[in-house]
Design goal:
Layout (H helix, E strand, L loop, with lengths): L2 H8 L10 H7 L3 H15 L1 H9 L7 H27 L7 H10 L3 H16 L1 H29 L3 H29 L3 H14 L10 H11 L4 H13 L10 H8 L19
Length: 279
Amino acid sequence: MSDIAQHLAVSGKIDFEDLDFETARKVGLTEKEVETLLYFADIESQTVHYFLEVAKLKVARDPELLTFLTMWNYEEYFHSYAITHFLRACGVDLESATQRAQTVRAGARFKAKFEDFMQGMIARTVPKSFVALWMFWGSLQECLTTQAYEELATTTKNPVLAELCRRIAKQERRHFAYYFGQAKKKLEGQVFAQRMTRAIAKAFYAPVGGGVKTDEEGARLVAQLFPGDRIFEVMGYIERKMALLPGMEGLDCCTRWAAKVQPMLPPETRAASIPALAA
């Protein structure tokens, strides 16, 4: 069975209707959990826009790639939908998932438009290398996303939220596995693609969402989930995973990002020390 066939066999909308929302409401959420979940929902809801931009490109006409992107878009949309439903069940007053997604997109920054432009230019100029870059970037971002959901599942005192996060994290791990496997295949023996991917990661890495959230918002969210020196532990873990891909040995873009954003963070979430390589 091919990689995509394996993913399609288990793909589907996240199950959440069976969760005990009455218990979730009674236990409640902390202010930080509400802030984190709103951020998650906002970013997950934007997947459809990433999908639409890539679908315009000629490289997306590859049947397997288009199949995966369709599956990925569908599952990510329902992550946002489930989180929004959960928040509203817990008494948080907010728009529907669709309305909020439109509001978030309406506030997209120039960075989002620039990223779309550069993506299209690279795809037209070096299509094979672009696909390798896309798969690498997807695995890089999904790795952190999985860590974030698993962290929230571990730290929350709301058992219903913990279960929802575990279910979402399970799908995110599958997304990571597909992106990672494809990145390995597309980067293997492709020296130019490896060098281009490293250069772009080194120059532009930031957690997903930079097109609709500010750098400060993204940094605060990550540091809120992984405060203090924990942020460097998580970023180091991601880099070790990425180092298993062809040409990515020693890549430290995540650690350098974590060091760069320290001044943006509230004092209570800043790291006690910065790794020497990132200083």
